Amino acid sequence: MWSDDREKINVDLKFALPGKERQDFAYSGLQTIDLTSELVCIHDSTRPLVTSSDVEKVLNDGL
What is the Cα–Cα distance from 17 to 56, expressed in whole angstroms? Predict the structure, then answer.
C-alpha cells in the first residue's frame, strides 16, 4: 500500500516514544503533531496485525 500510495498523498509520518501506559503513547504522539494539522492518525503497536486495507479504510474515512 505505502509504496504506491505514498507518492499520491502528502503525509508527514512521525513516531512517538512509548510510555508506561497506552494512553501515555497516544499523548506523546499528539504532542508531536503540528497544530495546523487537519487529520491525525495514530496507530499503537499493541495491535501489530492491522492490515493495509484497515489502514487505508481509516485514512479514507478521515478524508
Answer: 24
Predicted pLDDT at 7: 66
Residue ranges making up the domain that contains 22: 1-37
Q: Would you say residue 49 lies in a domain?
A: no
Percent of the chain with pLDDT over 90: 0
Work out how many domains the chain is built from and give that number: 1
Non-local CB neighbours of 28 within 8 Å, separated by 6+ positions: 16, 17, 18, 19
| CA end-to-end distance (rounded Å), the chain | 17
User: Positive or negative, the Cα torsion across 7, 43, 50, 62?
Assistant: negative
pTM, 2 dp: 0.52
